[in-house]
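# nightly structure sweep
# worker-07 picked up a monomer target from the shared queue
# config: single-sequence mode, recycle default, output format = structure tokens
# input follows
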Amino acid sequence: MRSSEVPQAAARPTLEAVAARAGVSRATVSRVVNGEAGVREVLAVKVRRAVKELGYVPNRAARSLVTRRHDAVAVVIAEPETRVFADPFFALQLRGISKELTARDVQLLLLLTEGRDDHERVGRYLAGGHVDGALVFSLHLDDPLPGIIHGAGVPTVFGGRPGWAGSARYVDCDNRGGARQAVRHLVGLGRTRVAHITGPLDQTSAVDRLDGYRDVLPAADPDLVVEGDFTPAGGERAMRLLLDRRPDVDAVFAANDLTASGALRVLRESGRRVPRDVAVVGFDDMLPVAEQADPPLTTVRQDIEGMGRLMAAMLLRGDVHEEGADGADADAEGGACVVLPTELVRRESA
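# output follows
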């Protein structure tokens, strides 16, 4: 093919072309495209129609030089890749985050951490000015990430109550209240030897759920509490230990649904009938896990996807006002939090 026959790429529509089509000034088009106020609706309608007709796409690179915004948010999960992609909790939370960011035309960048080198890499990336903010969850109490992210100077919202004093913006569910619901339900069934398989106790959600258990059963035998790790394998190990310690256990509150699924497997292997011999309650209500458990799992529902959406919305709208917009509560030092209610969902396991 001769060079004269090479098809020419269509010229990219410009702001000037949109302005000419709409019959308005370039400045008016710029304000409409960037979502700024001060444009009469009749003119804004003309601009939006011209944008659609011409197929105009804003030049984000050029706009970021002016606004210093990148229309991108980093999602930082303080867990190894194998855990993130095996646990449906993370998929649900990421789906909520993604829906909110997509609705605002903001990109999601996923950053996982598995060791000190990863922490330093995340810190360098955030400090490099590539994103407008960070959403961070699954933190552990000794995790250096909060300090690293603070040093990077990016706005941040945490998933889950942080384990340190001071102000922070975060979204969580009522972990302690949900645990109380679960344990009261088991006690209400007449169970007298109620065990608890915790999550990893270097995470605030696990500590709060243990506190909720103790709120209802302050005098429980310490042998009835075994630490797990929010995984099915951890639930299996903890359930075997419980049966060795207390073979007379007649109920188990598991710190999440995956833990409960592991506990159910061990109970079946040991010949215990659920719920006749041992009643089991989980936490999360992750439907692929809870509904397909054998038997289907009674559990405490938290709105995992909704938490993700709220985290993204809180980050994108900036600081929450003291009145607590959208259900948020502001603390005395300027942080803000949203704590979502929980609900007991009864199925066949208890």
